[in-house]
Design brief:
Strand order of the largest sheet: 1-2
Number of strands: 2
Order of helices and strands: HHHHHHEEH
Number of helices: 7
């Protein structure tokens, strides 16, 4: 690792100064430059290319478990540890998604606000004097809507028939 730093910075500083700063010998650095690439490094090039391909294909969302499973499904004989090591060594990380947050209120506007005509008097004397509604958001599932509405019934008979008025499919 230290020799690679020297290799990257040798155009800006003399080799002897870099070797002294990293506490390595210049002869060790020059021997490292002449040394052929190891069998492990050569064997890691192919899985690394596949890891990058899969990671890019899935917009950076796949981590070690999914990339390992995809490589195994494609027929590559690669271990979990090697995938993890290669991803860590080359800085390949899965993007984490932000938690889903529902934003139902926009208080930062200059629009007129409706007056409070009810003034927290929730006990009307007779039907059809006060109407109250509520809109609640829930995470949609297949076959369900995301918004549910409830309201006061018009007639006493409707109370037994439909206690909550819901959107289509709810």
């Amino acid at each position: 690792m230290g020799f690679q730093i020297i290799e990257d910075c040798q155009h800006d500083y003399p080799v002897w100064m870099l070797c002294s700063a990293l506490n390595v010998s210049p002869s060790g650095y020059y021997a490292w430059r002449q040394r052929p690439e190891s069998n492990r490094a050569i064997a890691n090039q192919h899985p690394l290319a596949d890891i990058r391909r899969i990671h890019d294909h899935h917009w950076g969302r796949y981590g070690v478990p999914r990339i390992h499973a995809t490589l195994r499904a494609e027929g590559h004989a690669v271990s979990w540890g090697r995938v993890e090591q290669l991803m860590h060594r080359h800085g390949i990380k899965a993007k984490k998604s932000k938690p889903f947050r529902v934003c139902t209120t926009d208080s930062k506007h200059d629009l007129p606000i409706a007056p409070n005509r009810l003034d927290r008097d929730f006990a009307p004397a007779a039907p059809n004097q006060v109407w109250v509604t509520d809109i609640t958001f829930s995470a949609p599932r297949p076959g369900w809507s995301g918004v549910h509405m409830t309201g006061m019934p018009r007639r006493k008979e409707e109370l037994n028939e439909r206690p909550a008025l819901c959107c289509e499919g709810a």
